[in-house]
Amino acid sequence: MAWYSIFIGVALKSTVVLAVAWLAAGLLRGRSAAARHLVWTGALAAVLALPFLSVSLPALRVSTGAALWPGQTDAVFQATAAASPDTGAAESAAPRPAVGSFTGGRRRTDWRVWLMLIWLAGFAATFARTLAAYAAAWRLRRSATPFPDSALCGALSRELGVRRAVDVLETEAGSMPMTFGLVRSAILVPSETAEWSAERRRVVLLHELAHVRRGDPATHLLARAAMNVYWWNPLAWIAWREFLKERERAADDLVLSAGARASDYAGHLLEVARTLQSAPVIGWAAVAMARRSQLEGRLLAILDSGVNRAAAGRASVLAAALLAVALVAPLAAVRAQESQAQAGSQKDYERLETAAKAAAQLRQYDTARKLLDSAVAIRAAVFGEQSVQYGVGLMNLAALEQKQNHAQPAEEFYAKAAQVLGDQLEAARALTHLGLAAMAKRDFPQAMDDFQHARRVDPTQAGAAIMWMAVVEQRQQHMEDAERLYQSALSVQDPQSIEAAVTMELYGRFLREQGRTDQAGEMDARAAAIQKANAPPARSDTASVAYKVGAGVNPPSVLQKVEPEYSEEGRAAGLQGTVVVQVVIGPDGVAHDARIVRGLGLGLDEQAIEAISRWQFKPGAKDGEPVPVTATIEVNWRLL
User: Fold this and answer.
1) What does the angle CA 629 – CA 631 – CA 637 come to, to the nearest 5 degrees?
2) CA dihedral of 225, 230, 234, 236, whole degrees rounded to 10
3) Strand partners, 168
4) What is the mean pLDDT of residues 409-429?
5) Would residue 190 be called left, alpha or beta, if left means φ above 0 and alpha means ψ between -120 and 50 degrees?
6) 22, 25, 479, 606 - which has most CB atoms within 10 Å?
7) Does residue 419 register a pLDDT over 90?
8) Is 59's pLDDT higher than 70?
């Protein structure tokens, strides 16, 4: 699973970033709270950017483990000889295996999917709570009334160097003073603020204005967003706690730098924390003045005259966040290189499958099976056992078993592939083969279900699925339904396609069986014209070097012939006829450059070429020397 790889990569790298931030903050213990807050702000900005950087940055070119997969030998890849399946009798038919009756057949969700779902549930819960908090804070701001002493706020703003307009609003009694708002900040104070002493009003407003000056509402949102993503990580919760602690201490330092006496300020802070409280929901969105859990450490820092109280401006916060993101970018790019390793794994299973195909053509089926098993294992490791890629690998194994006339193992692999693929487009191939297997066992209801499912998952191949449904109805002597389906198949197929020609051939046979010979002849003629129009042209380079029989050129003759075998589709459809193949018989006595002149479809053309490729000829000759000679071979397909 590609997303799982990204998830794990981001999880590990974010843990490294947060651990480094924790160490850096420890090394800055003698520096100001503002400096340590910059560290935590940068770290949270970096881990929030990590997922986006990981999927968007180009690869950092470093050595990877992709080369650990062994390469294939040139001999395997250069093999080009074709071979037909064994001519032995097919295995006896058996009922379709029930779900879970073969190894790995039980449908189960990959544990990685569960892990991703758990993370997604946590993210959704924290994100929803954050949205609710900001909505509640916004409603509170809109319902608040203006603070009567606006002149005091203006004077204190100038004293702290806050150049932006700040709204000071009164809320219900007993609420904790807090700051909220990104574009236009608002300070929310309780309604009893007017009853406080002038000194308390001053230090409370100074503290909240310090948050505005520092840009704390914006960094609060940034940190909250990071916590939504990394809710599962204990280091993230440590970072959040330290972020809040250092932020409040940095604001306290600004208040003290503005001239407040430490002992008086500590007393006011203690009284505010004792008598006022903030709503838990709004605390996720607004910057509250005091949290009782952190009060003791803040009071000690306020009363410690040796504490470094250097301040940091809004520009410093932005610079720290951007610098942290820039520093983490190379780490994020390693994820991009890991995707290159995954791409290498993908090339590995493709190479294995190419080698397996060559081995199967050489009839080295044991070798082909081992190669495909390895390819399927790579697909499972890279993409997961519920992925489309894994399902396609299972169908490759099914095709190999089918090539050896092992009907039952082939059906098992197709059934498992259909389970994995579900309603994915690729499932149509497996479902079609399962429908053909059900037809062979005369399980017509199951066959109809399979073909209907194939039609539903892949509308582009609806014509073929409907054609097979017509064949099923014909087998059951439901002639009206069969004719309706043949016509329906033709209505959705490209009228000039090979698929339409096959449907016409089957429909023509159906009409002939009904005694409607004129209509059957018309349908056959249309099918033949389409097959001829779709026949590949002769190769010009071959024609220039091959001789034709006559004018001193003796014809080749057959020394050894292998009878072709019906394809599964051709046998199921009852398709009969003649495939005409043009070849060049080389001086080596082997047929080369096979070209279908007139085909039938449903795999019979391929089976004809495969059989001819195994024939042995006495080559044609000119002046007593073997020469390449063109020949036409007719392969007759008849069902007894």
Assistant:
1) 155
2) -40
3) 187
4) 92
5) beta
6) 25
7) yes
8) no
pLDDT: is 28 or 68 the higher one?
28
Rounded Cα distance, 37 and 28, in Å: 10
pLDDT for residue 35: 94
Distance CA 416, CA 527 (A): 36
Cα distances (Å, whole numbers) of residue 588 to 81, 226, 412, 539:
14, 71, 41, 20
pLDDT tens, position by position, 81-129: 233 333 333 344 455 554 333 343 334 456 778 888 899 999 999 999 9
Task: Compute the average pLDDT of residues 254-271.
Answer: 94
Amino acid (one-letter) located at 372: L
pLDDT of amino acid 346: 57
H/E run at residue 360:
helix 314-361
Output the six-digit token pair for 519: 């209509």
CA gap 570, 431 in Å, rounded = 17
Phi, psi at 147, each rounded to 5°: -75, 130
How many C-alpha atoms does 596 have within 13 Å on its Cβ side?
22
Burial of 494 (0-12, 13-18, 19+ CB in 10 A): exposed
Taking only the tens place, the pLDDT of each residue in 551-577 is: 888 889 889 988 888 888 888 888 888
Torsion of the alpha carbons at 222, 34, 133 and 139, rounded to the nearest 10: -110
Side-chain half-sphere of 89: how many Cα atoms within 13 Å? Answer: 3
Long-range contacts of 566-571 (CB under 8 A, 24+ apart): 566/604, 566/607, 566/637, 566/639, 567/602, 567/603, 567/604, 567/606, 567/607, 568/402, 568/433, 568/436, 568/603, 569/436, 569/602, 569/603, 570/600, 570/602, 570/603, 570/604, 570/607, 570/637, 571/440, 571/639
